[in-house]
TrEMBL record, chain A:
SMART domains: WD40. Its main location: nucleus. Keywords: Apoptosis, Developmental protein, mRNA processing, mRNA splicing, mRNA transport, Nucleus, Phosphoprotein, Repeat, RNA-binding, Transport, WD repeat. This is WD repeat-containing protein 58. Pfam families: WD40. It is found in: Nucleus speckle. It comes from the Eukaryota. SUPFAM superfamilies: WD40 repeat-like. Belongs to the WD repeat THOC6 family. WD repeats lie at residues 164-205. GO terms for molecular function: RNA binding.
From TrEMBL, chain B:
InterPro entries: THOC7/Mft1 (IPR008501). Transmembrane segments: none annotated. This is THO complex subunit 7 homolog isoform X1. Its main location: nucleus. The lineage of its organism: Eukaryota, Metazoa, Chordata, Craniata, Vertebrata. It is found in: Nucleus. The gene is THOC7. One of its GO terms (biological process) is mRNA export from nucleus. It comes from Trichechus manatus latirostris (Florida manatee). Keywords: Coiled coil, Nucleus.
Length: 341, 227
């Protein structure tokens, strides 16, 4: 889909073009602003839009409040992942990572603060960056993607400090284990690897597809999503969604979900997951499905929980995926409304 | 009179019903007063009665006959008492309104307090819910691990099995040792036997050789003296 719009185009074609764009849009990533009142979403055309959550949730919300307040073209390719620090929005796509100041974006500026490219092995490679992770203790950013390595970048200096190698196929997702500063990464090769950040070595490897209880060979062995809660980890994708005890590397609970899950997160005493299929699933740690809340997209790729302490009234769950809509759940039980591109 | 729209509820011409009179545009206070005077010219009941009383007093003062005067006097007294009655009623209503206001104020304050209390209770309960959720999560984690542990057999049993196996192993190795010893002994004895046989054989052979040599010497001695 071309992203450049030709100037001399009659109105009818323009509308058709836009409608087609919206039909084929996929929202890959979301990120909440540090003040908690805005949500950024990145799609497959490389655009990043900002929605005002406080306006959309207020009692005087109209149809326009559910549209973006700012739209800008961030990358040439899809925006696969985004994170927010306390002042910046960092977005990553095909090979590059860029940062934008939240204060400037909100004033309708679209000038990037910096852009970097991690050191790839050959200059011909332009691998996509699938996952970004902030490590607040070291003030660094971890990037992982198509070149099967985890790159650490210091946010102050912008220099790439480490490259952790071990995966044999590209990496889908990252998670941070806070107590011992370890990073978990899961990828296409079916293994979840734990890396110690201080020694820059691989500490533990869990090959999920080798365990009979959770492996589903007909789906493949790829790990699509990871979340960790210090001693526990939940991962899913090709194999079934499983809860692991990290110390003993044993799978403890298998969640009976047939569709591969693309995003999973711990929330209070629940595990929220979403993937192929239009629902956001809520699981209890014992393996029971507590609730399945349908959303408006046929498949979901990312979930975002706005838990910023500065805006408790905007505490919502937002889900986005294979459509141009971002669903907002004010109460985990039902979909309140949808923001749309 | 309604403050916002200046509409007035007035008795109609024969005092049988109340009509709501609403001006279309919001007029100035002068217009309001003018309209009110127009509609309510004489004043409602009480005002009218006092006017009538004054008029009848003047008439009575200037009236002649005794009886008429007396009846007029009675009528005036009754009108006066009616006026006093309605004034008393109005005072009571006024008192009642004041007390109602106080009552409402009190209730309003109480409700505000209870709202604040309810807010606090809600906050408390939310904290308790979070705590309970944490506890539930811990319990579920415990259960999950316990399930996994249950799959593995009991440690005591495994230790006992290990001990039993160890004893068997010892016993068997004892047997093996004794068998090996026996084998060694037999081997040595056999070896001794064989070596003794060999020696005997050697000795026999030696004896045969000696006897052959002796025979050869004897025959050579016999042939030698002939030449």
């Amino acid at each position: 889909m071309e992203r450049a719009v030709p100037h001399a185009v009659p109105l009818g074609q323009m509308e058709v073009f836009q409608a087609l764009q919206r039909l084929h849009m996929t929202v890959f990533s979301q990120s909440v602003s540090p003040c908690g009142k805005f949500l950024a979403a990145g799609n497959n055309y490389g655009q990043i839009v900002i929605f005002s959550l406080s306006a959309a949730l207020s009692s005087e919300a109209k149809e326009e409040s559910k549209k973006p307040v700012v739209t800008f073209q961030a990358h040439d390719g899809p925006v696969y992942s985004m994170v927010s620090t306390d002042r910046q929005l960092v977005s990553a796509g095909d090979g590059e990572v860029k940062a934008w100041l939240w204060a400037e974006i909100l004033k309708k500026g679209s000038k990037e603060l910096w852009r970097r490219q991690p050191p790839y092995r050959t200059s011909l490679e332009v691998p996509e960056i699938n996952a970004l992770l902030l490590v607040p203790k070291e003030n660094s950013l971890i990037l992982a993607g198509g070149d099967c390595q985890l790159h650490t970048m210091d946010l102050e200096t912008g220099a790439f400090t480490r490259a952790l190698r071990g995966h044999t196929d590209y990496i889908h997702c990252l998670a941070l284990r806070e107590r011992s500063p370890e990073v978990l990464s899961g990828g296409e090769d079916g293994a979840v690897r734990l890396w110690d950040l201080r020694t820059a070595k691989e500490v533990q490897t869990i090959e999920v597809y080798k365990h009979e209880e959770c492996s589903r060979p007909h789906n493949g062995r790829w790990i699509g999503c990871l979340a960790t809660d210090s001693d526990w980890m939940v991962c899913g994708g090709g194999p079934a969604l499983t809860l692991w005890h990290l110390r003993s590397s044993t799978p403890t609970t298998i969640f009976p979900m047939r569709a591969p899950q693309k995003h999973v997160t711990f929330y209070q005493d629940l595990i929220l997951s979403a993937g192929q299929g239009p629902c956001v699933n809520q699981w209890q740690l014992s393996g029971e499905l507590k609730a399945q809340v349908p959303s408006s997209s046929p498949g979901l790729l990312s979930l975002s929980l706005n838990q910023q302490p500065a805006a408790p009234e905007c505490k919502v769950l937002t889900a986005a995926g294979n459509s141009c809509r971002v669903d907002v759940f004010t109460n985990l039980g039902y979909r309140a409304f949808s923001l749309s591109f | 009179m309604c403050e916002k729209c200046y509409s007035l509820l007035v008795p109609d011409s024969d005092r049988s019903q109340m009509i709501l009179v609403t001006p279309v545009a919001l007029p100035s206070p002068d217009e309001v007063i003018r309209k009110r005077l127009l509609i309510d010219g004489d004043g409602a009941g009480d005002d009218r009665r006092i006017n009538l009383l004054v008029k009848s007093f003047i008439k009575w003062c200037s009236s002649g006959s005794q009886e008429e005067g007396y009846s007029q006097y009675q009528r005036m007294l009754s009108t006066l008492s009616q006026c006093e009655f309605s004034m008393g009623k109005t005072l009571l209503v006024y008192d009642m309104n004041l007390r109602e206001m106080e009552n409402y104020e009190k209730i309003y304050k109480e409700i505000e307090c209870s709202i604040a209390g309810a807010h606090e209770k809600i906050a408390e309960c939310k904290k308790q819910i979070l705590q309970a959720k944490r506890i539930r999560k811990n319990r579920q984690e415990y259960d999950a691990l316990a399930k996994v542990i249950q799959h593995h057999p009991d440690r005591h049993e495994t230790l006992k099995e290990l001990e039993a196996l160890g004893k068997e192993l010892e016993h068997l190795s004892h047997i093996k040792e004794s068998v090996e010893d026996k084998l060694e002994l037999r081997r040595k004895q056999f070896h001794v036997l064989l070596s003794t046989i060999h020696e005997l054989q050697q000795t026999l052979e030696n004896d045969e050789k000696l006897s052959e040599v002796e025979e050869a010497q004897e025959t050579s001695l016999e042939t030698d003296p002939k030449p």
